[in-house]
Amino acid sequence: MSKQEVILCEELESSLTSAIGKCPHDKLFILTDEHTHRLCLPQLNGIPALKEATEIIIGAEDVHKNLETLASVWQALSEQGATRHSLLINLGGGMVTDLGGFAASTFKRGIAYINIPTTLLAMVDASVGGKTGINFNGLKNEIGVFAPAASVLLETEFLRSLDAHNFFSGYAEMLKHGLISTPEHLAELLAFDTEKIDYAALKSMVGRSVQVKEDIVEQDPLEHGIRKALNLGHTVGHAFESLALAEGRPVLHGYAVAWGIVCELYLSYIKVGFSKEKMRQTIQFIKENYGAFAFNCKQYDRLYELMKHDKKNSAGIINFTLLKEVGDISLNQTTDKDTIFEMFDFYRECMGV
Ligand SMILES: NC(=O)c1ccc[n+]([C@@H]2O[C@H](COP(=O)([O-])OP(=O)(O)OC[C@H]3O[C@@H](n4cnc5c(N)ncnc54)[C@H](O)[C@@H]3O)[C@@H](O)[C@H]2O)c1
Ligand SMILES: O=C(O)C(=O)C[C@@H](O)[C@H](O)[C@H](O)COP(=O)(O)O
Ligand SMILES: [Zn+2]
């Protein structure tokens, strides 16, 4: 898989013009959701390289990251003259970059695409690394391909219109990057003033956070080994997210990941000796900023069944990514069902649900 260009922009117009210039194309498309069409696209007004771009607009949020929306993007490309030599720009959060990336990589067996992430989550995580796809059969990212964007352009000015929930959703993936990288990076994340955001400081932190992901993806783009580190919190987090969606009370991806981290730090503590104090500090931050996902012991089996669909699993065995210490990663960790249920008990007790 080719290494993708990730640019922390000083000036979006020049970075975008240069990125488009590197992708010779016959026709240009720009995909937004209904919110980024209203809030973000106007910020690209007047950029000459986008003058001829055809707009495609989809519904917002993860409920639209599905086959129907995907088909609507294929349909728009097909009906509006896209060829194998066309170029798609995805302007939006992770829902747009995941679905748009998948649409581009499958349309006529693959056209080039550029990501311009507009949420914190998409800047530090979703737009980078080539995982594209949609939710299917009640499961997160069940269908998709690895196909990196030609370029990823990070313009943190877009974050000024993001609401607090989506800020914290992205921040959970940053916490994950802190946990899998260094105690210093984790400490700066836990200490950051999230109530009064210093956008210049946030921009620097976004740069450090996305670098954690880029370094890992470069070593293992197709997730045969170390890339599973980026899935910390997701074995349980995706099960929470799928359950919430099925019960008609969807939660933001990053919130599910934060709650998944609570569970998987507990497993890290009991199975591979993660520090109790670091676990306590991280859980405290999550409790204060994310609240809790409520479930009861009658739902343990359902969550367990959902976890059986995790992509890190093999031969019916649930594999976790755990931590011995901050930055010291233990891949492919297994445990019995009783311990998984004990982990749910721990979560409910410490989160007060
Ligand atoms: N491919 C990957 O590696 C990867 C990594 C992490 C998450 N994901 C996926 O990413 C998705 C979540 O992404 P997300 O959190 O960006 O959600 P999202 O794309 O649904 O965006 C959240 C909301 O914010 C709005 N929005 C976007 N930019 C905005 C802005 N600048 N100002 C105001 N509102 C704005 C969107 O319209 C939407 O309503 C999930 O589907 C998750 O599975 C993928
Ligand atoms: O890039 C990766 O690798 C990740 O695991 C990043 C995750 O934050 C992200 O949510 C990803 O989409 C999860 O992938 P999945 O393979 O577990 O569906
Ligand atoms: Zn994630």
UniProtKB/TrEMBL annotation:
<keyword id="KW-0028">Amino-acid biosynthesis</keyword>
<dbReference type="InterPro" id="IPR030963">
    <property type="entry name" value="DHQ_synth_fam"/>
</dbReference>
<dbReference type="GO" id="GO:0003856">
    <property type="term" value="F:3-dehydroquinate synthase activity"/>
</dbReference>
<dbReference type="GO" id="GO:0046872">
    <property type="term" value="F:metal ion binding"/>
</dbReference>
<keyword id="KW-0547">Nucleotide-binding</keyword>
<dbReference type="GO" id="GO:0000166">
    <property type="term" value="F:nucleotide binding"/>
</dbReference>
<dbReference type="Pfam" id="PF01761">
    <property type="entry name" value="DHQ_synthase"/>
</dbReference>
<dbReference type="InterPro" id="IPR050071">
    <property type="entry name" value="Dehydroquinate_synthase"/>
</dbReference>
<dbReference type="GO" id="GO:0008652">
    <property type="term" value="P:amino acid biosynthetic process"/>
</dbReference>
<dbReference type="GO" id="GO:0009073">
    <property type="term" value="P:aromatic amino acid family biosynthetic process"/>
</dbReference>
<dbReference type="Pfam" id="PF24621">
    <property type="entry name" value="DHQS_C"/>
</dbReference>
<protein>
    <recommendedName>
        <fullName>3-dehydroquinate synthase</fullName>
        <ecNumber>4.2.3.4</ecNumber>
    </recommendedName>
</protein>
<dbReference type="GO" id="GO:0009423">
    <property type="term" value="P:chorismate biosynthetic process"/>
</dbReference>
<keyword id="KW-0520">NAD</keyword>
<feature type="domain" description="3-dehydroquinate synthase N-terminal">
    <location>
        <begin position="56"/>
        <end position="167"/>
    </location>
</feature>
<keyword id="KW-0170">Cobalt</keyword>
<dbReference type="InterPro" id="IPR016037">
    <property type="entry name" value="DHQ_synth_AroB"/>
</dbReference>
<feature type="domain" description="3-dehydroquinate synthase C-terminal">
    <location>
        <begin position="170"/>
        <end position="313"/>
    </location>
</feature>
<comment type="function">
    <text>Catalyzes the conversion of 3-deoxy-D-arabino-heptulosonate 7-phosphate (DAHP) to dehydroquinate (DHQ).</text>
</comment>
<keyword id="KW-0963">Cytoplasm</keyword>
<dbReference type="GO" id="GO:0005737">
    <property type="term" value="C:cytoplasm"/>
</dbReference>
<keyword id="KW-0862">Zinc</keyword>
<keyword id="KW-0479">Metal-binding</keyword>
<comment type="similarity">
    <text>Belongs to the sugar phosphate cyclases superfamily. Dehydroquinate synthase family.</text>
</comment>
<keyword id="KW-0456">Lyase</keyword>
<dbReference type="InterPro" id="IPR030960">
    <property type="entry name" value="DHQS/DOIS_N"/>
</dbReference>
<dbReference type="InterPro" id="IPR056179">
    <property type="entry name" value="DHQS_C"/>
</dbReference>
<keyword id="KW-0057">Aromatic amino acid biosynthesis</keyword>
<comment type="pathway">
    <text>Metabolic intermediate biosynthesis; chorismate biosynthesis; chorismate from D-erythrose 4-phosphate and phosphoenolpyruvate: step 2/7.</text>
</comment>
